[in-house]
Structure prediction request, 106 residues.
Amino acid sequence: MRINTLKRFTLTLFNQDMEKKVELEICLGTLCFIMGGSAFEMISESLPEDLMGKVLVKGMNCPGYCNMPKYGRAPFVKVNGELIAEANIQKVIAKMREEVYHGANK
Ligand code: FES
Prediction:
C-alpha cells in the first residue's frame, strides 16, 4: 500500500514536470557550430523569464541535415522534435513560446 502511494506520488510529480517542458535539441556538429550554433551553448542560462524552468536543453550529434539541401541550411535545432533550419536565438525562442503557450505541452 505504501509503495503504491509512493509510486502514484512519483508519477504525478514526473507527469507535472514533463507537461511543462519543451525539448530543445541543439546540433553539436562542426558545421552547425561554425554557422551560428555556438550561440546556443549558453541558452539555458539566458532564457527569457517566462521560459525559465520550462525548457529541457539537449545536444545531438550531427544527424546529417547539413548534407541534404532539402532541409535548408545550418545551424539546425529541434524544438519538440520539429526541425528548425538557419536557427537563431530569436527564432528558437519564438518556437519555444509557441510550444509552451499553444502547443501540446501547455
Ligand atoms: S553539423 Fe548540424 S546537421 Fe550536420
Remarks:
- The longest strand covers residues 22-27.
- Strands lie at 22-27, 55-60, 77-79, 82-84.
